[in-house]
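ok so i was messing around last nite and threw this chain in just to see what happens. nothing serious, just curious
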Amino acid sequence: MEGAFSKVLIAVDGSQQTRGLLDYLSGIISVRHAELVLFHVMPKVPESFWDLEKDPSNLPNAEHLRIWEVEREKQVRDLMRDFRRRLTGIGIPEYSIMISIRKVKEGIARDLLQEAQRGYDAILMGRSGFGGAAAHMLGSVATKLAAKLDSANLWLVGKNAGSGGVIIAMDSSEPAMRAVHHVSKMVNASNNSVRLVHVVRGITVSWTGQEKIFPEEYRQRLIEEAENQIKPTFDAATRILVSSGIGPEKISTKFISGVASRAGAIFDEALRGGYGTVVVGRKGLSSLDEFDMGRVTGKLVQLAEGIALWLVA
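result:
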């Protein structure tokens, strides 16, 4: 329920996108019931050394690297304090905000992955991750976490993502219902609407003679059956959301059929409806795996720019 206590790990890398995470967070969760950990993995040397194929251990004098490390840590601590001031400004008690700065051990992605498995309700990070990759691509750290973090809930937040309501990608699977439960626990019921969306592609007739094998009325009947089959799932999901404090007037359902791509249809629905968040079970909407995720989920990871995508374990 909305009053439930939530523990969120925020991966901080100091980029402009990271600053946007705080604005997104303040609109999507109930700040009165949150414990936040601002987490940064500090590299030993500037990444440009690896670009130049320089091994710091072979440098004759590493004093300048020690100076860089001290200055970098100071900058990170100042940034974290600024983030904490911003969070207290939106109502989160200072005692609920912890700062954790770690020197890299096994690599940024692996160190973050290890921390993420310590009982957090959600792992929040910018879509481009720790690196400022091009807007149309996931950062390398975000990509690794999306592929490997199958035991925790990962929130990938795109640039300029706003709260703007939540879409839950639905089917009749257990992962989809776990996504509903996650939303019921995490989302601030007072200022977020929720739309349950189920997408079926249907049978397309693309070559001569195929319409005789799959006549129009047969194809239409399959779609009607699919729509009827998802209704009990919509009803069950709605009851869960209402019990968490989300008003029935803020919950809607939508059945979409006859599309080429289920992931594309979900993403388009989010854009058209002004929804800032799409939530999906990691293995929902497909019985097959792609990077340890369902096929639709894997495609949404690549498509979902400018919004937040929650991958629910």
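not much to say yet. The first strand starts at residue 6 and ends at 11.
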